[in-house]
Design a protein that fits this description.
Layout: H1 3-12, H2 14-38, H3 51-76, H4 93-129, H5 139-152, E1 157-165, H6 168-175, H7 178-194, E2 200-204, E3 207-214, H8 216-230, E4 234-236, E5 239-241, E6 245-251, H9 259-275, E7 280-282, H10 285-307, E8 310-319, E9 325-336, E10 340-342, H11 348-351, H12 356-377, E11 384-388, H13 390-394, H14 398-409, E12 416-421, H15 422-427, H16 429-441, E13 445-451, H17 458-461, E14 468-471, H18 473-477, H19 483-498, E15 502-506, H20 511-519, E16 524-526, E17 534-535, H21 536-546
Parallel strand pairs: 6-7, 9-11, 11-12, 12-13, 13-14, 14-15, 15-16
Antiparallel strand pairs: 1-3, 1-6, 2-3, 4-5, 8-9, 8-16, 8-17, 9-10
Length: 551
């Protein structure tokens, strides 16, 4: 048990302990008086025993206690206590008055020391339960309150809510560290209104929490009001600043767990709300499983790269009018020793949000170029497309890295195609344009992947040095019945042709898709109808058997 915990134990039992201590101090006081008297009087050293009750009083009751017992001790050893009991000699006035003053001073200083120590311990205890910058209660205080909440919950629904704002880094980079503390304080004031003035806790630099009691329908209305309220601008140095907030919550009535686990559940819901760009999200058991799985999977991904668990499959791109194989796309496969085959969609999107994607892309580029060297030795020369992410394009010297690999493997740059999604292009368009222009200068083929699903502005499209638009398979799968999908396909194909580039349709799975796209003047097609993604050696055999033509 540390000093603060000991202090807390004493404070909780202060009243009964104070009564007991007062009784002991008075008993000691009487005991010392009797000791002095029956040992012969004040002239002997036994009078110094009076320091014990004086110091004890000062330590336990502070200044007023120390002074009171000091005065009382001075009086009981004062005018009525003889210097020598046997001789009956009484003390002169200056003798006992001096002792009275000295005892009082000892009690005063003991009390001052005690009061200062107690104030310091109270401050330390406050710091253990509060955030010093904002004055709000902290995570430790929330855990204590949650423990009490589990013991007392009844009646209405009990919820734990976490509110976080996501643009912290951007704010700090412009205004400094202090802006976060101001934002938290102002956000807490806003939320306290909707939270019926409940205690609000700061459990992370940009994260608040509070407990709320409400019925189901009313709770949803409160959530919506909180989202709107939390996104009103804060004021910092007379400047209005927007907060991007998300809310994660857990209904405590639904969970039978500890305070720590309930907080962990709410944090899992908040993470999922942030990943899915939802205003708010409630906890469900599968959320925790998914978040845990994502973290474990990322932890295993680096090991998978080192142990050769990742491989590439290749799917051809077919010219709809000539049947010629114009290229292939490299698609990743993860053969996990325990989980079996893991689909790219289960780990690539999460890897793209981390720095691991740079290692993944390096691995793919190396594997692709090694494979192309082998194909060239067999007389097969086809461009291979590799998907690159936002982080790849924003990585310093990404283009230089690609150039170095092409030189290392002695490959023509026109045998490499880099596919970029619309989302990656829009994150930092100016920087992306510069990087793509450098790649284009070396004659690397560039294409836009999943066209039609993102938010690519037409004002940027004509500036991109791309030679191919890949139309997302979502629209192809809806053919021929969905007229809207057909109009979008026709518009995308027409746009590509007017820009002087080709259009490729993904997800071609039936002959009807193939013929309809051909009639719409689409240039290229890719899908299971022609060939599923296969390992490099199987693609080589497939290509050679057909002489590079489909069917």
């Amino acid at each position: 048990m540390n000093l603060i915990e000991l202090f807390e134990q004493f404070e909780r039992r202060r009243r009964p302990l104070s009564v007991l201590a007062a009784f002991i101090i008075l008993l000691l006081l009487v005991g010392v008086v009797l000791l002095v008297y029956f040992t012969g009087g004040i002239k002997f050293v036994y009078s110094h025993s009076m320091y014990l009750p004086i110091l004890l009083a000062g330590m336990l009751f502070g200044v007023w206690g120390g002074v009171l017992i000091g005065v009382l001790a001075g009086l009981v050893l004062g005018p009525w206590m003889p210097i020598d009991v046997q001789a009956g000699e009484m003390q002169p006035l200056q003798n006992w008055v001096y002792r009275l003053g000295f005892f009082t001073l000892i009690g005063f200083f003991a009390g001052v020391f005690s009061d200062l120590s107690r104030a310091y311990l109270r401050h330390l205890r406050w710091l253990t339960r509060h955030d010093s910058a904002s004055g709000l209660a902290n995570r430790e205080a929330l855990i204590r309150e949650l423990s009490a909440e589990f013991a007392e919950r009844s009646g209405s629904d009990h919820f734990l809510l976490l509110v976080a704002f996501e643009n912290t880094r951007e704010m700090k980079s412009v205004f400094g560290q202090g802006v976060t503390d101001v934002a938290v304080s102002q956000l807490a004031q806003k939320l306290s209104i909707n939270a019926d003035h409940q205690q609000i806790y700061r459990i992370a630099p940009a994260q608040l929490a509070f407990l709320l009691h409400a019925q189901g329908p009313a709770f949803i209305d409160l959530l919506k009001a909180m989202v709107q309220q939390s996104r009103e601008p804060i004021i910092y140095n007379n400047i209005s600043i927007h907060l991007d907030t998300r809310i994660g919550y857990v209904r405590l009535n639904d969970v039978d767990m500890s305070a720590e686990m309930s907080l962990q559940s709410a944090e899992s819901a908040l993470v999922m709300a942030q990943q899915k760009a939802r205003d708010y999200m409630g906890f469900r058991p599968e959320i925790l499983t998914r978040v845990r799985g994502n973290l474990i999977l990322l932890g295993e991904l680096k090991e998978a790269l080192e142990q050769g668990q990742l491989t590439l499959h290749y799917q051809p791109k077919i010219d709809l009018h000539t049947g010629q194989v114009c290229g292939v796309e490299a698609l990743m496969r993860w053969h996990h020793p325990v989980r079996g085959l893991i689909a790219p969609g289960d780990f690539i999107p999460r890897a793209e949000q981390s720095t691991l994607i740079n290692q993944v892309t390096d691995f793919v580029l190396n594997q692709v170029m090694q494979t192309q060297r082998q194909w060239l030795q067999q007389g097969v020369s086809v461009p291979v497309a590799v998907n690159v992410s936002t982080r790849n394009l924003l990585q310093p010297n990404f283009a230089d890295r690609v150039f170095a690999l092409l030189e290392h493997y002695q490959l023509d740059a026109r045998l490499l195609e880099l596919e970029v999604t619309e989302g990656a292009l829009m994150l930092d368009m100016e920087r992306t344009l510069r990087e793509l222009s450098r790649l284009d200068e070396l004659n690397i083929i560039l294409s836009i992947d999943d066209f039609g699903t993102g938010y690519l502005s037409l004002q940027y499209l004509h500036r991109l040095p791309v030679s191919l638009l890949k139309i997302d398979q979502t629209f192809v799968h809806q053919l021929p019945d969905d007229a809207g999908a057909r109009y979008i396909l026709e518009a995308a194909i027409g746009l590509a042709h007017k820009m002087g580039i080709k259009a490729l349709a993904e997800g071609v799975e039936t002959q009807a898709h193939f013929e309809l796209l051909k009639s719409m003047s689409c240039d290229l097609a890719q899908g299971f109808l022609m060939c599923r993604p296969v390992p490099a050696d199987e693609f080589l055999e497939w290509y050679q058997q057909r002489g590079g033509l489909y069917p």
